[in-house]
Specification:
alpha+beta; Jelly Rolls; 2 domains; eight-stranded antiparallel sheet; three-stranded antiparallel sheet; 9 helices; globular; binds succinic acid; binds cobalt (II) ion; JmjC_dom; ROXA-like_wH; iron; dioxygenase
Length: about 375
């Protein structure tokens, strides 16, 4: 992957990862011109009113723009009446509703799929913003329509203080080190912790390609879930070797350290830990966005072989693979999958973002069963190849 990438303004992925990723911002003019026109402001408005969509409507008071209100979805038409001059509509996970948007993740092949969060879009009229703030995640901000002025400032962290009494985590000040107006197709990479402030110059759509990392609390939570479900761990541990009677009210340091060792030996089991992590990391960001499909059987699939269909990842689902004990295993939407060896390689290609043809090579009962199960749980989808 050592060629210069247009999306990075002509630097290589290696250079970006070593110099910019998680460290400093990067502005690229005309990085993603194809994003313009995929969604129009009206599409964003309509999407925000749909049932399953996660959206927020942020308003600033006309009399005092430092007073903010936030209304989270479900949003209704009435929420858009009597609007102040300054507002922003945020819609999460537009990549789950627009295949064209989902395809744009492919412009960032140097970051693995498991790091992706979602593509959020913001819609604001001139002057609209979500305030001066910082995020704990990496984001590529891409201008889709109109113009937005971005100011970047100081590095912040968990101890940074916010303006009191507001529903958003607004920074009182930003020490401006960067001040540029982005036009459709322009991209700005913002690393975690960097203060930023984007103000619409006109009717404006900005896309945030967000990346996530799990936190330790969630990792522990997932580990505890998977250990609690493990029958082998449900039997009481054997008692410590007792040589002489002890005080009956006391649990000795020896006894405690024995129990700690029992626990630690399980916590250090790499398979148990990896499985718990994979379950967590494969959890979808918005489980409600996963569509429910009509049940498909292996007979239907047999008929569809060589009819020009493609198998592809469902954008709202999350499918990952990893090597465990020398074998490639799959996890999707928070659970480990059981996939036959004969379909393993093809499913890796699908998880890597490829669309693979449903052809005669799939004429195997195990493969067809795997495909049917993956389709019925909406982990993958079946599309006519011309789409
Ligand atoms: C926006 O698009 O207005 C907000 C995106 C962000 O600051 O993360
Ligand atoms: Co932000």
């Amino acid at each position: 992957m050592s060629q210069a990438l247009d999306v990075l303004g002509g630097i290589t992925a290696e250079q970006f990862l070593s110099e910019y990723w998680q460290k400093k911002p990067l502005l690229v003019r005309n990085a993603l011109p194809e994003i313009a026109g995929i969604l129009e402001p009206n599409d964003v408005m309509e999407l925000a009113l749909e049932d399953e969509v996660s959206a927020r409507l942020i308003k600033q008071k006309d009399k005092d723009p430092n007073q903010w209100t936030v209304k989270s979805s479900p949003l209704i038409k009435g929420d858009f009446q009597k609007m102040p001059k300054l507002w922003t509509l945020l819609v999460q996970a537009v990549d789950h509703y627009s295949f064209d948007m989902a395809e744009l993740w492919k412009k960032f092949p140097f970051i693995p799929q498991w790091r992706r969060d979602d593509i959020m879009v913001s819609y604001a009229p001139k002057g609209g913003s979500v305030g001066k703030h910082f995020d704990f995640y990496d984001v590529f901000l891409v201008q889709g329509h109109g113009h937005r002025r971005w100011q970047l400032g100081q590095m912040c962290d968990a101890s940074t203080e916010f303006v009191a009494g507001q529903p958003l985590k607004i920074l009182p000040e930003i020490e401006v080190t960067f001040d540029e107006v982005l036009a459709p197709g322009d991209l700005l990479y913002v690393p975690p912790g960097l203060a930023h402030y984007g103000v619409a110059e006109d009717d404006c759509l900005t896309y945030s390609f967000g990346f996530r990392m799990p936190n330790v609390a969630d990792m522990v939570d997932s580990l505890s879930d998977s250990m609690a479900e493990n029958d082998a761990l449900k039997n009481p541990v054997m008692d410590i070797q007792r040589k002489q009677p002890t005080k009956i009210g006391e649990i000795s340091t020896n006894e405690l350290s024995y129990l700690r060792e029992q626990l630690m030996s399980q916590l250090q089991n790499p398979s148990v830990l990896s499985d718990a992590l994979m379950c967590l990391i494969s959890r979808p960001a918005y489980p409600n966005n996963i569509p429910e499909n009509d049940e498909i059987g292996t007979g239907d699939l047999e008929e569809a072989l060589d009819q020009g269909y493609l198998l592809k990842l469902e954008p709202a689902s999350r499918l990952l693979y990893s090597e465990l004990d020398g074998v490639i295993h799959f996890w999707a939407n928070g659970e480990r999958l059981n996939i036959s060896d004969v379909f393993n390689e093809n499913l890796q290609r699908i998880a890597d973002g490829e669309a693979i043809p449903l052809n005669d090579e799939m004429y195997d009962p195990d493969i067809l069963e795997d495909i049917a199960e993956l389709l019925n749980s909406s982990i993958i989808m079946l599309l006519p190849s011309e789409e």
